[in-house]
Design a protein that fits this description.
Blueprint (H helix, E strand, L loop, with lengths): L10 H19 L1 H4 L22 H10 L8 H9 L3 H10 L6 H15 L6
Helix pairs in contact: 1-6, 4-5
Length: 123
C-alpha cells in the first residue's frame, strides 16, 4: 500500500476532513434512525431556519463529541474567547442544545475539536 505524506500545513485540514468522514460513516451506520424525522403538527415553511433536534443529526453528533472536552472549568470560556462569543452562548450551543451557531462558527468548532482530540493547544 502506498502511503502519501502531506505537507505539514495540510495536516489540520486533512484531519478535519477525516473527522467529517468519520462522522458521516457513523451517521450512515445508523442512517435509518438518524434520518427518521419527527412529524410536526404544523409543517415547517420552506426556507425556515433549522432548529436543533431530530432534524439535525450531524449537529447532535458534534454536540455529543464536544461535551467531554468542555466539562473542565474554564474550557467554555476559553472556547468562547476563540470564537468571539460569551461563555453563556457556548453553553447554549453545547449543553443546552436549544441553539446552533452559524456555519462559520460550526466549522471553527470542528477545527477546535480536531485540535483538542489530537492533543494540540487550540489557539
Amino acid at each position: 500500500m502506498y502511503l502519501r505524506r502531506n505537507h505539514p500545513k495540510l495536516d489540520l485540514p486533512v484531519a478535519l476532513a477525516d473527522l467529517i468522514i468519520a462522522a458521516s460513516v457513523a451517521l450512515a451506520r445508523e442512517s435509518a434512525r438518524a434520518f427518521r424525522l419527527e412529524m410536526r403538527r404544523h409543517p415547517a415553511r420552506i426556507g425556515n431556519t433549522l432548529r436543533p433536534g431530530g432534524e439535525t443529526p450531524l449537529w447532535n453528533e458534534l454536540r455529543r463529541q464536544l461535551r467531554p472536552y468542555l466539562r473542565q472549568y474554564g474550557q467554555q470560556a476559553n472556547l468562547g474567547r476563540l470564537l468571539g462569543l460569551p461563555r453563556q452562548r457556548i453553553n447554549a450551543f453545547v449543553t443546552g442544545g436549544g441553539q446552533m451557531p452559524d456555519a462559520e462558527r460550526t466549522l471553527q468548532l470542528l477545527a477546535w475539536l480536531l485540535a483538542v482530540q489530537q492533543g494540540r493547544r487550540p489557539s
